[in-house]
Amino acid sequence: MAAPESGDGNNGAARMVTLISSDNTRFEVEAAAASLSQTLQLTILDGGGGGGDGIPLPNVDSATLSKVLEYCIKHAPAAANGGAPNATAVDRAELERFDNEFVNIDQSVLYSLIMAAHNLEIEGLQSLVAKKVADMIKGKSPMEIRRTLGFPDPTPEEQAEMNAHMLEYGWAYE
Amino acid sequence: MAAADENETNKLLLRLPDDVVSDILSRLAPRGMAVSRSVCKSWRDVVDSRRLLRAHLLPLSVAGIFFRHTGADILFPPLFFDGASSTAISDGILARFGNDYTSYTYLHDHCNGLLLINKYVINPATLQRVTLPERPPPVPYVLLLPAAAGEEEEEEVVHCQTHVPRFRSDRLAAGGITRRMVATFATPPARLLLEDSAMGTENGAYCRGRLYLQYDNDYVTRINTSAGTYDLIQPPDGIDATKETQVYLGKSEKGVYYASVSYWLCRLQIWYLDESNEQQPQWVSRYDNTLLHVLPCNCNYRSDDDGPWILRYYDYDYDDDEEPWISPPNTDHDYVCPCRFHHHHPSDDHCHKQQVVNAAHYG
Predict the structure, then answer these.
(1) pLDDT digit string (tens) for B139-166?
(2) Which residue is closest to B1 within chain A, CA to CA?
(3) Chain B: nearest CA to A160, how far in angstroms?
């Protein structure tokens, strides 16, 4: 996950890259953090994003990118250790606490994060947000899930279809 | 896209890409996955097209656990553990099963393309079924089967169901090994069903001057009764290799036929023996189908009796001083009978050897 050739150690300072959100806000971050994104990693390995160039991210607005980078910066050190085999229990607990807090957000933000994690291919963040949504719908009935996720109420046809499909695995709904 | 209007954002979760939906749903337990199929069509499509739902992992609803004992001299009635309310007493349950509790299929015999499975005559070609009237008890006959070199001769009890052939002892020289030949037939029998309690089902057919014998699922022995020679023919390829399979040998229009029937799925496979090359006979497949759905449902459990689970008290033991095997009713709803059985019956030594426990579930 880490960018092994980001060369941060070479001249003593970590290499920085610039990311540009859809609303033209520039974010300067360590290459190691940005490289948590599979999508960005290749560009960064190719030497992109440095200097005044910046990497444009037309699908991510500044609020979301700021949130994404918060995650990346927090997780970069552990990822650089190759999944943090040396991490102490305290470190892991701290990351877990951070993650739980991190996804304790509005659904609109959550949605933006899901899309950004998906587009940028940030594996850990993808897992985190998917798990968050899964936890939101776990143990709920189809109608409760729809309400939880703010889906519009089903039309009569959709309702009939839902009922029909609930019968298919009826024993699982007890 | 991410900067969508606040009122619209809630609905955005409905429009997640399939990959994301898949990622989310695959974190759910099978039950949650099954529920999610009903949420909306796009989710259902994701679950179905990516085969996310492992239906066999879903918690099953067990309506009854049925214990049936098989064995030589089992006197015990079948046991039933039910999930019905406390009013569902054993007699009522058992009466519903009645004598019709056979929970696996057994092919007793066949004739003219018809099968006798359990107590039903089934036509595998038309998939029709009729119930057979009670049949008379079979008459035992003694028959000497060929013993391999150095082996003791075995005396077998044979049940011939119809036209009993006359047997006479003879000697058969084969490859320098003298075998005591079973029997030759004064009039070639159309078929011969040999049943033996020790060796399972054995079959024979007499066709075009040759006697074909089948022992268990092993080779078919082809005996040329006039030349006094024999050879072994491998069973057909592709035979259902599970242990729970009966095999049959019989004669019909194309000569010798080999059939296999599996107990549980009642899969019937039939081959005939192509002997156009005398030295290299080939089995040719004629039929392969599952007949289970033709049989009536074995158990008439009524779903309207469904209710909390109860381990029905059943005093299995003849000895009044003994503890009952099964504890008195337990009304834990999800409790599915992890009961322990102790064998205390005096005739344990032999009569439980073949005890079969059949657990059945009904959705």
Answers:
(1) 443 343 443 333 443 333 333 333 333 3
(2) A59
(3) 10
How far B318 CA sits from the closest chain A CA (Å)? 39
Q: DSSP secondary-structure letter at A155?
A: P
In SS3 terms, chain B reads as CCCCCHHHHHHHHHHCCHHHHHHHHCCCCHHHHHHHCCCCHHHHHHHHHCCCCCHHHCCCCCCEEEEECCCCCCCCCCEEEEEECCCCCHHHHHHHHCCCCCCCCCEEEEECCEEEECCEEEECCCCEEEECCCCCCCEEEEEEECCCCCCCCEEEEEEECCCCCCEEEEEEEECCEEEEEEEEECCCCCCEEEEECCCEEEEEEEECCEEEEEECCCCEEEEECCCCEEEEECCCCCCCCCCCEEEEEEEECCEEEEEEEECCCCEEEEEEEECCCCCCCEEEEEEEEECHHHCCCCCCCCHHHEEEEECCCCCCCCCCCCCCCCCCCCCCCCCCCCCCCCCCCCCHHHHCCCCEEEEECCC
Kindly list the residues from chain A whose CB atom is less than 8 angstroms away from the CB atom of residue B59: 171-172, 174
Chain B closest-CA separation from residue A8 CA (Å): 33
Contacts of B29 in chain A (CB under 8 A): 138
Contact B130, B114 (CB under 8 A): no
Touching check for A136 and chain B: CB below 8 Å? no
Structure tokens given for B13: 């979760």
Sketch out chain A's domains with CATH numbers.
16-81+88-138 (3.30.710.10), 139-174 (no CATH)
Task: Please write the tens of the pLDDT for every residue from A6-39.
Answer: 444 444 467 888 999 999 999 999 988 998 999 8
A173 touching chain B per CB within 8 A? yes
Cβ–Cβ gap A134/B27 under 8 Å: yes
